[in-house]
Write a structure and sequence with these properties.
The chain is of the alpha+beta class. It has a four-stranded antiparallel sheet, covered by helices on one side. The longest helix is centred in the C-terminal third of the chain and has 16 residues. The protein is globular and about 30 Å long.
Length: 99
């Protein structure tokens, strides 16, 4: 399992409240912040993809923009054959381009 801090767009609030059982914080824009535990495999990727552009992974820190160059190399080196993490890293890169 992996713990992810995520931000959901307010447009999917109905789904977040239905599916997430951890504490949910509403920010000043109405978006929802929470921490979720997901299996560290293709189910994680599938679940995140099911929200489309309405979800942003805020943590784990190694995928933040400031550490992107170092962490991309580290991810490639350490978990090259883990398809879930490769796709997860792609999600982070796309998310960072929007910022």
């Amino acid at each position: 399992m992996i713990s992810l801090q995520v931000k959901f767009d307010k447009r999917v609030a109905y789904r977040v409240y239905d599916e997430i059982t951890t504490e949910i914080i509403v920010d000043e824009n109405g978006d929802l912040l929470t921490t979720i535990e997901l299996p560290n495999d293709e189910r994680m990727v599938s679940y995140l993809f099911s929200f489309g552009s309405n979800v942003e992974v805020l943590q784990p820190k190694r995928n933040t923009p400031t550490n992107k160059a170092i962490d991309s190399k580290q991810l490639e080196k350490n978990i090259k054959h883990d398809m879930g993490w490769q796709v997860f890293n792609c999600i982070i890169r796309v998310s960072n381009r929007k910022a």
